[in-house]
Design brief:
This protein is mainly α and 282 residues long. The protein is built from 10 helices and 3 strands; from the N terminus they run H-H-E-H-H-E-E-H-H-H-H-H-H. A 3-stranded antiparallel beta sheet has the order 1-3-2. Helix 5 runs antiparallel to helix 8 (224-237) and helix 6 (187-200) packs antiparallel against helix 7.
Length: 282
């Protein structure tokens, strides 16, 4: 008697769809969970082999924060909005720049990355990355095995930066005065905003408004590299320009004077106002 063939399971060739697991995201284990530092594979509690598990409701580990995962939502059916490290670094960079502008980070003092990370509630890594960027811009210098020293600017430093900025901006603005049919409407509100912040004494806010004005004005030239270089120099020079004796309000009012000179194609007044605005001596 002929024996019946043994039943076989479904095969992809039979038209049954083969389920392929989705590719893992960085930091995920085989079941889609997020692994924190020292966490066991497949453990949602961040337990370490031989160590205590992280209690429910306790502080999230850095990997949890980096992936923006919430308890009970970390599975393939929920979309994620990861907080990338570059974004954290950018936020830390802006916070450090504001602290430098306001004088919160004191000239001549050395700050360690771990201490600053604790102040801003982040790890030392994005702080080091941000400080390296500030070192490239000339705002701080690296002190081996200690951290970063905030650089104090001398009168000679300020004069050198002002001269370089004049060499960049004066030819651009002179060309705009000769060729621009009309000023874009957003420039005068930027100038008014800078004046308002200068009157209130908001040093950090005024510095940001001053750089925004110059970036928008130089951006009309159409060369993004030129705008980027000038912005870095403005950051190094600081605003208000501390080495000049005039009040902030006078410096801020010069934004409007520059726009008026460009509209009139008055290159002589433009050069005079810009030299004073940047703090060029002589």
């Amino acid at each position: 008697m002929e024996r019946e063939p043994a039943p076989r399971g479904p095969h992809p060739a039979d038209g049954v769809e083969e389920r392929v697991p989705p590719p893992r995201r960085p930091g995920e284990d085989a079941i889609g969970g997020t692994r924190g530092r020292g966490a066991a594979r497949g453990s949602g509690t961040g337990a370490r082999p031989g160590g205590p598990a992280r209690p429910p409701g306790g502080p999230a580990c850095p990997a949890d924060l980096a992936h923006g995962s919430a308890r009970g939502q970390d599975h393939p059916g929920h979309a994620r909005a990861p907080l990338r490290r570059t974004s954290v670094r950018g936020q830390v960079l802006e916070a450090l720049r504001a602290a430098l502008d306001s004088g919160e980070l004191e000239a001549g003092r050395v700050y360690s990355a771990p201490a600053l990370g604790e102040r801003y509630g982040v790890s030392a890594t994005p702080v080091r990355e941000a400080m390296q960027r500030l070192a490239a811009e000339g705002a701080v210098e690296t002190v081996p095995n200690r951290g970063f020293r905030v650089l104090a600017r001398t009168d000679a430093d300020a004069a050198a930066l002002a001269e370089v900025l004049l060499l960049i901006e004066l030819p651009v603005l002179t060309r705009l005065a000769a060729t621009l049919p009309a000023l874009p409407p957003e420039l005068r509100p930027l100038a008014a905003r800078a004046e308002e912040l200068a009157r209130t004494g908001d040093r950090t806010g005024y510095g940001e408004a001053d750089r925004a004005f110059h970036a928008a004005l130089l951006g009309l030239h159409g060369n993004p590299e030129l705008t980027r270089v000038a912005d870095a120099l403005h950051r190094r020079a600081g605003s208000p320009r501390a080495r000049t004796p005039r009040p902030w309000a006078e410096e801020a009012a010069q934004h409007t004077a520059l726009l008026d000179a460009i509209e009139r194609a008055d290159t002589a007044t433009l050069a005079t106002v810009l030299r004073s605005h940047l703090g060029v001596r002589g």
